[in-house]
Amino acid sequence: MSDKPLYTNRLIHEKSPYLLQHAHNPVDWYPWGEEAFHIAKTQDKPIFLSIGYATCHWCHVMERESFEDIEVADSMNQTFVSIKVDREELPEVDSLYMEFSQSMMAGAAGWPLNVILTPDLQPFFATTYLPSHSSHGMMGLIDLIQRIAELWSSEEREKIITQAEKIVDVFSKAVHTTGEDIPDEEQISITADLLYKMADPTYGGIKGAPKFPIGYQYSFMLRYYANMKDSRALFLVERTLDMLHRGGIYDHLGGGFSRYSIDEKWLVPHFEKMLYDNAILAQSYLEAWQLTKKNLYKEVAQEILNYILRDMTYSDGGFYSAEDADSEGHEGFFYTWKEEEVKEILGDHGQLFCEYYDITAEGN
User: Fold this and answer.
1) For the chain: N or C, fewer Cβ within 10 A?
2) Which pTM was predicted?
């Protein structure tokens, strides 16, 4: 019996690990480029733009559930010119369409990011993860494709194109990739006030869940405190850094932070580690130590950097961009422990440790 893949698409010629993961999908993927744009125009088809990255958990799930599904692939191939983008390879493309998607989805956009475009690359619909078929109140990809196909072949098409042109016009006027002027003292104070209003004084960070550690905000607030002596800024940063370290989002054995927690207490992480998150957080903890001289912050910064040097550094030079959340087919399998494993390793101290950290047979 041959192990040769049933399907091979154009992504087989790419160098991106993420694109190569999709090279044997039955979806007729194109890489981002003029060939795909030309085909969309000559065949008069909308573009299905799907953006993700190699270590993205829900990207894996959507590929398995949807992009490997023959029925889904047939529908996509009939309706769209489908383009796959690695956000780490083309961050400018990701940034542009993420900005649009966040406005359309009230800030709920994430990866995989799936955007429907006109053949002129103007967006008119955005969504993130979708299962192959509708269920539990969530639209499935099959139903979405059918709806887009109907709209594209109906009189509504002109409205879609007009709407997309207006969206592009608004964004071209409103979005700036760089600031035009250095912010003055008033603008800096307004920014600090906005962060105060969004802050969670109990658990740190920004209110709500899921919760992301945003290191550059903490560095901004530390510098704001150092210059303005506003004690609120220092309180919120210290509360955040302390709670981050106490939570499950921090790897207490290996060092480094996961991408985000699914709860407001920083307890249950999404077990994916990003180089850029940890690099920025190392700086935040280092700046906090320089300002407060609290050894905890120095220790966390050292542990983050040791983790990066040990696990995120390539032997021939350079760094890995991320560490996958999935291993052996399960999210977080590498990082989770069973109650019996803890007791076996810790021996006489196992029971006390499990009680203290709420480790049970059912999980914590």
Assistant:
1) N
2) 0.76
